[in-house]
Amino acid sequence: MDISPSFFYLFAGFAVAFSLLVVFKKNPVASAFSLVIVFFAFAGIYALLGAHLIAALQILVYAGAIMVLFVFVIMLLNADTPSFDLGRSHWGLRLAAMILCLVAFGLFTWALKESPLPIFRGPFSPEQVDAAGGNTQVLSELMFSEYILPFELTSILLLGAMIGAVAIAKRKEAGNANRNAH
Amino acid sequence: MGKLTMDTLGWCILIGKAVGVILVLVSSVPLMVWVERRGSALMQNRLGPNRVGPLGLIQPLADSIKLIFKEDLIPGHVTAFYFVLAPLLSLIPAFMTFAVIPFAAPILVEGRTISFQVADLNVGLLYIFAIASLGVYGIIMAGWSSNNKYSLLGSLRSSSQMISYELSMGLSVIGIIMVFSSVRLGDIAASQGEAWIYLGSLMIPKWGVLIQPLGFLIFLTAAFAETNRLPFDLPEGESELVAGYHLEYGSMKFAIFMMAEYLNMTTASGLMVSLYFGGWQMFWPLTWIFDALGFTGMPHEWARVVFQTASFTIKVAAFLWFFVWVRWTLPRFRYDQLMNFGWKVMLPLSLANIFLTGALIYWKVI
Q: What ipTM score was computed for the predicted complex, to two decimals?
């Protein structure tokens, strides 16, 4: 299964264009909406690569949940005014940022050009994944057999974060109650 | 795999299915508007629209002509670009979700398997949740771009409501996935035709609602919250928010929001039928008629497709009526009640359902 180049360039173009909009838009809500389109473009590229599960999860988790919360918070805080002033940044800082960006870009180009081809390929080619029942099944089988320990550790990490969030919220509540009592 | 390597006939079938599904969905909207208005009239002991056409059936057409010819107004205080974009953003996901819902079993015609769903994705159910979670953007965008306190409050309510209930909805379906061990809706619908237990000579099929009653109740409740229908229509809440997120909208832009709501209802009904009510599996009078017809060969297969589509449609229609019935029966929840119910009742229940299902599968009850 080959990735169709025209579709790839379409999605990649969308991703780059809207990433730029995320940075350059003055309005935070507009930036957030642009970021949603970037996630969509990524999902499109994943789908072209045959990774439908990753594409669906990308939309479900990033576009559907995380960005909704982002937009939600932006609207609640009513952050219509930009949080920093672009005009007042130091010229030295700007120059340094520009040089660092160019260096990073050069580094990436060099690394991609010099890396030996073909890159090492794992045992899961798209054909084999299809033969084994599609990538949802293959991924879940791997997750609950070979990678069960990292999977469980990630769950514990998330549980820890959840308990932490609840604890912080509860402490604030208790603090408020104390203040009211005095 | 390989939609990119299909032949011409394959493409024609695919496009035909997509166009057919979209046409049926679009034409179901005016019908639903009529059912809603006549249904509410029935429950409130009045007549409802009955002047235009027989039984008032042409009324939705007259309504849509009115909406199309009204002035397409964009108020001066809104962010125009997002204001226009918002109704479209709520309509598109409503259409997209129906793509993976199967309305008949696949048929084999001259060596080519035609499945009766627009796209048979191996992520099936996840695709529906992924696209459905985008519907909230239209509402958020409408509320924010309207630059109006009531609209913003409405869209804030709706986003928190949809996020909260999406969670229980997703978790309630896990039970079904565990029982049928597939996320493809086609597989799930097909497995529901298998026998579960026998009561004498009566075969009880493995319908989702019979083996996952708790999961179904959670899913049903969450579906009402996700489609912003009463008793969970807090985002609109006429009595406190005037009309919520679509307060500033008029003419066709308002009609598009309404269309999206009805399409979401249809998709939710289609989903409930596919997951819990056997999908395209035929039920008693239809199976009896189908057997009595006694076709063989290809006519038999095509008759099967027709009967399966019919039974799917009847089941979906029953659920659509249920949506209308509930809307005109139950009063609206208060906002804090809604949130408490979502997080303190629905979420623990859906988690309990997963554990219960696991235990039942372990002891080979289901």
A: 0.74
**Chain A interface, Cβ < 8 Å to B:** 1, 4, 29-30, 33, 36, 50, 52-53, 55-57, 59-60, 63-65, 68-69, 71-72, 75-76, 126, 130, 133-137
Would you list the DSSP string of B258-283? HHHHHHHHHHHHHHHHHHHS-TT---
How many structural domains are present in chain B?
1
Per-domain residue ranges of chain A: 1-81
Q: Which residue has the tokens 């060099």?
A: A110
Distance between CA A59 and CA B126 in Å, rounded? 10
Classify B212 as helix, strand or coil: coil
Per-residue confidence in pLDDT tens, chain B, 366 aa? 444 456 778 788 888 888 888 888 888 888 888 888 888 888 888 888 888 878 888 888 888 888 888 888 888 777 778 888 888 888 888 888 888 888 877 787 777 777 788 777 777 788 888 888 888 888 888 888 887 788 888 888 887 888 788 888 888 888 888 888 888 888 888 888 777 777 777 777 778 788 888 889 999 998 888 887 777 777 676 667 777 777 778 778 888 888 888 888 888 898 888 888 887 887 777 777 777 777 777 777 888 888 888 888 888 899 899 988 888 888 888 888 888 888 888 899 999 999 998 898 888 777
* Neighbour count for residue B3 (Cβ, 10 Å): 9
Q: Hey, are the CB atoms on A64 and B2 less than 8 Å from each other? A: no
Residue B223 identity: A
CATH class of A1-81: mainly alpha
